[in-house]
Design goal:
The protein is about 30% helix and about 15% strand. It has 9 helices and 11 strands. Helix 4 runs parallel beside helix 5.
Length: about 375
């Protein structure tokens, strides 16, 4: 009887402690505002940038640490400067079809620089179409990454959207179940007809993502004013956003986004706040790709290179030729930000939501219908 009472008390204490731990969990890093850097050599130094980020309520910065199998360096003094000002420092890498090795390279960068988070840019090599067989690469990457970094905050960034009601044939569930958030590329400045923020958020939901794990990446390059995104971000139901690209964004861009970064412009409900650092999902919706003929649709026609609605002008004066090769995150589709030196990649394909009823359907399906 005494043993039973002791066991009961122990279980009650454990439950109380677990509840307390959940209540005290820090909000997700990606609930705040962040910025991507391609090449630090495009900037005069870290000081002006850190001043702008701190003054305008940005919480994190991601440096380009790998481009496929090619590793890229972060100046160590830059890391110190940003951390001294309370800015979390992470890395991002373009994953080019060697998922196991690239996951190891991501871990090497995390350990080498003591990074606070990692963002994987998985695009066409991770799609499953008649010509691209990348479905299994997502699971290969996340399994190895989580073996090496089981608790590190991490996110997936990829193409912004497929034309409704279609979804991109990427194994989103593998990333979601491994605790990755989603950073869809909302490059309205270049693709106003397809990559408007609300369209990328709607696509994320069709692909199975809850709103509290979706954080749009805003295209701020080619002299496109960040202020234009403020009305487009209102009422999305998401928390957090990021800017691509620090190499070309200006002080005026960060200042324009300050109310959004500070939470003074309502993006959505508060339901997504207060999450833990890492959320490991179960195998709730992981599925194998369909083995039959694929039903894909061509991408929506892209917007013009210029124009009143979106468009983009010439590259900003701050952008110089990259000494270590171009970044790939800024290439959302067949054209993207043309930065030279890198081969063109195939346009993303789109999966019919009708395949969601197929016994072997991909996980990427229409959740809204």
């Amino acid at each position: 009887m005494k043993k039973a009472i002791v066991l009961t008390l122990a279980l009650l204490c454990a439950a109380v402690l677990a509840t307390t731990a959940r209540a005290a969990a820090a909000p997700s890093l990606f609930d705040g505002a962040g910025v991507f850097v391609d090449n630090p050599g495009n900037l005069p130094g870290p000081w002006d940038l850190v001043t702008e980020l701190e003054a305008n309520h940005f919480r994190w910065i991601a440096f380009h640490v790998n481009n496929g199998l090619a590793q890229q360096d972060i100046p160590l003094d830059w890391i110190d400067v940003f951390r001294e000002h309370g800015i979390a420092v992470g890395g991002w890498g373009y994953e080019d079809g060697k998922p196991f090795i690239e996951a190891v390279l991501a871990d090497i960068a995390v350990r080498r620089y003591g990074l606070d988070f990692y963002i994987a840019d998985a695009e066409s090599p991770y799609e499953q179409t008649k010509k691209l067989h990348g479905w299994g690469r997502s699971k290969t990457f996340v399994d190895e990454f989580r073996t090496l970094e089981p608790t590190l905050p991490a996110a997936l960034t990829t193409y912004g959207a497929a034309t409704a009601p279609w979804v991109l044939p990427i194994d989103y569930a593998a990333w979601r179940n491994a605790g990755f958030d989603l950073l869809p590329q909302a490059y309205y400045n270049q693709f106003p007809k397809a990559y408007r923020p609300d369209m990328t958020v709607a696509h994320s939901q069709r692909a199975g993502w809850p709103l509290d794990r979706v954080h749009p990446v805003l295209g701020v390059y080619r002299k496109y004013p960040a202020a234009n995104y403020i009305p487009l971000m209102t009422g999305l139901g998401t928390t957090g956003f990021s800017v691509f690209l620090a190499d070309q964004a200006t002080a005026a861009d960060y200042a324009a986004l300050a109310p959004l970064a500070a939470g003074n412009v309502r993006v959505g409900s508060a339901d997504g706040r207060g999450r833990g650092r890492t959320r490991r999902g179960g195998s709730d919706d992981h599925a194998e790709p369909a083995r039959g003929p694929e039903r894909v649709q061509p991408r929506a026609p892209q917007g013009p290179a210029g124009g009143a609605e979106g468009g983009a002008g010439p590259r900003g004066a701050r952008s110089r030729a990259h000494g270590r090769g171009p970044g790939v995150l800024g290439r959302p589709g067949p054209e993207g930000v043309r930065r030279g030196g890198r081969r063109r990649r195939c346009a993303p394909r789109q999966l019919s939501p009708e395949r969601a009823c197929d016994s072997c359907a991909r996980e990427a399906r229409d959740r809204g219908g």
